[in-house]
Amino acid sequence: MSTNIESHLVENRIFKPSKELSKKAHITSLAEYMELYRKSIINPEKFWAKQAGELLFWRKKWKTVLEWKEPFAKWFVGGKLNVSENCLDRHLTGATRNKAALIWEGEPGDKVTLTYQQLHREVCKFANVLKRNHIKKGDRVIIYMPMCPEAAIAMLACARIGAIHSVVFGGFSSESIKDRIKDCGARMVITADGGYRRGAIVPLKKNVDDALKDNEQIERVIVFRRANNEIHIKEGRDAWWHREMEYVDGNCPPELMDSEDPLYILYTSGSTGKPKGIMHTSAGYLLGTALTTKYVFDLKSEDIYWCTADIGWVTGHSYTVYGPLCNGATVLIYEGAPNWPEPDRLWELIEEYGVTLLYTAPTAIRAFIRWGDEYPNQHDLSSLRLLGTVGEPINPEAWMWYHTVIGGGRCPIVDTWWQTETGAIMITPLPGATPLKPGSATLPFFGIDAAVVDDQGEEVPPNVGGKLVVRKPWPSMLRTIWGDKQRYKKQYWSEVKGCYFTGDGARRDKDGYFWIVGRIDDVLNVAGHRLGTSEIESALVSHPCVAEAAVVGRPDEIKGQAVVAFVTLKEKEHPTPELREKLRQHVATAIGAIAKPDDIRFAEGLPKTRSGKIMRRLLKEIAGGGQVTGDTTTLEDFNVLAKLKGVHD
Ligand code: 7RM
Known about the structure:
Layout: E1 5-6, H1 19-24, H2 30-42, H3 44-55, E2 64-69, E3 72-77, E4 80-81, H4 83-87, E5 100-105, E6 111-115, H5 116-132, E7 140-144, H6 149-161, E8 164-167, H7 174-184, E9 188-192, E10 195-197, E11 200-202, H8 204-211, E12 220-224, E13 238-240, H9 241-246, E14 257-258, E15 262-268, E16 276-281, H10 283-296, E17 304-307, H11 314-326, E18 330-334, H12 345-353, E19 357-360, H13 362-371, H14 374-377, E20 386-389, H15 396-406, E21 413-415, E22 450-453, E23 466-470, E24 480-481, H16 485-493, E25 500-508, E26 514-519, E27 524-526, E28 529-531, H17 533-541, E29 546-556, E30 560-569, H18 577-590, E31 599-602, H19 616-623, H20 638-646
Parallel strand pairs: 1-28, 5-18, 7-8, 7-9, 9-12, 12-13, 17-18, 17-19, 19-20, 20-21, 30-31
Antiparallel strand pairs: 2-3, 4-14, 5-6, 10-11, 15-16, 16-24, 22-23, 23-25, 25-26, 27-28, 29-30
Helix pairs in contact: 2-3, 3-10, 5-6, 7-8, 10-11, 13-15
The structure holds 5'-O-(acetylsulfamoyl)adenosine.
């Protein structure tokens, strides 16, 4: 029996960058990329040192580029800098001083624009608020905020004084806040009274109050007034943001930070048990995010850049705050849901602000498809020049829709593969250089030695699936799991000798392009054939009636595992036994009989994390007829799960 993952779905469409685009791009051809990539891999330290010198502002130059004692890395050892100074102060000397840094729109339609000069002042003031409240370098601060400029201000203020922030997504419960406060030993929580979501107010302060019952550890809660909902203020512990800002001045010299001083901790759901606090440090992380923002989005000074991710997800950290601001870009932030009050809200915003770069998730794209083309079609989207995706494999069908309906056929799509742990984009097209294949994240970024290997750690031949690993350390990699070096070592550096193990399965095609086939834990084993989830799901989504699909295995006496598909139909379609049969046949035709679903279950929605990833682990338990037992704290909508449990036909 082969242990390699098989691949059956072949995608042959290729989209080359246009001549005009290539000419103006930072990297202008595939040959140029290849040559730079080759050099960057022969001597990564030389490559990264050159970039660090050019892209970052240093108070003191480093002595050693890399100290590597597997699995522990130190980058730019001896160097001193401040992340907030890099994102703000250094843009204040020229014309960028008066350029919009953040353009914000709230869900009810209120608007705020902050220039670099204004943002700098707000950050300095809030940094002084932190100091006034006895927060020092190295202290941990929880940020639990709606999507508003103050969330970014709080993050940058922490960075300015060397406090370590841990942003908790505003949709998480008080239980999650509590766990994270405890795990990282935070002293302060920064929150808001409430935030708007689909016309309702999310009671953020109330959730914090619940999390802090019997808590002695948190000394101060700072509350930003956003939604004007009624809240409880606990004397001696809670203070209003706007009041605190009255007492401080607008100057706050940046704390001199070591390259390896921690910048933040961000919790990700482990597949079981306790959340993992992924820890990132200062210089390497900033370099990774700044460099990829520049090259992957081919950033130009006039761009209006919009990453729709919440700030509580790593994508919001790296590609709303640190990467773009370090490059002096103009960033759009929107508070609410993409379909509120109508399913055209996103497109309305793009038209209104003339967004040029849009970075979003496949799950959102599939939802837009389901809602119907009439919504984007009502708006002028001609300002867009480049599109991006992140978070999951994008089904070729969804890619094509994004390309034609949103991009008008003229915008390249950068399908970017990376993780909370990697800090920055790792596998990605470069828009002026890389021919695109729908569904592939294409080629590794400079300095990233990505490979697909078998169980022995040997690289597999083209089109054979295996484990996706990275064979050399890179500057923006996580340094540890907060408070648990052993778990860090075991989770990421023990599976494949000498390599960082991503947990994902992938294959490379004959051109060296990476195709992510899903999480290794989700791979199916059907009659001795190992099948990744993404190909079967893509085959289902390529049927005109299907909006979204998730495939899992169910224990089967004969085959080992049977294929069970959960399918969401487009808004106007109806589930029927005939359609079920057609879909099974459709998969058999697209991929082969081996992948034909034994069972198709129609569902109104699929269980997802807050960042939109399908939680196949839960579906597997449902498909097997069992109870859902594992961790569900990152589940977006409990109703979806309840409904699924009821659906057996
Ligand atoms: C940025 C982020 C990481 C996991 C990763 C993959 C999946 C992300 C892609 C993707 C296929 C992509 N951080 N993933 N991007 N799979 N193509 N372009 O998502 O820590 O929340 O998740 O997401 O499985 O390991 S994350």
